[in-house]
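Notebook entry, structure prediction.
Reason for the run: the old model in the group folder had no record of what sequence produced it. Starting over properly, with the input documented here first.
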Amino acid sequence: MTQSLSTRSRPFTYWLAMIAALGVIVSQLLDVPAAWHEHPLVGAIEVFETVLFAVLAYIWTTTSARWAWIVGGLVSLVALGGIIFTRTVGIGGGKSDVGNWGEPVTVIAMVSYVLMIVAAILHLRSHARQ
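New structure, fully documented this time:
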């Protein structure tokens, strides 16, 4: 008899992903107003990420879908690349974020993305062995 995902103990990667998702959601919600004002496209992307990570957290809680881990890891990798790009080159002619590495919302987002990438890799590797 197999246990459902909701009744068996959760793996470490699940908790790591949940912390990462919470970090992404909080950091994006805090940054959306300023981002939307400065670059509406960036604001829209942050809203999308907030909704996406809330949905992913729900999926991780209710199923063992491998694709959700892949999506979480890939979106985090792209988003981390976006932060690095905006902090080094800038976007759309705007240079307000260039060099702005220490902003608390940015630090929370970067740490959350890295945690999500690590969680996805570890989770997918451990399930590939089974």
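Summary: The first helix runs from residue 12 to 38.
The old model has been moved to the deprecated folder.
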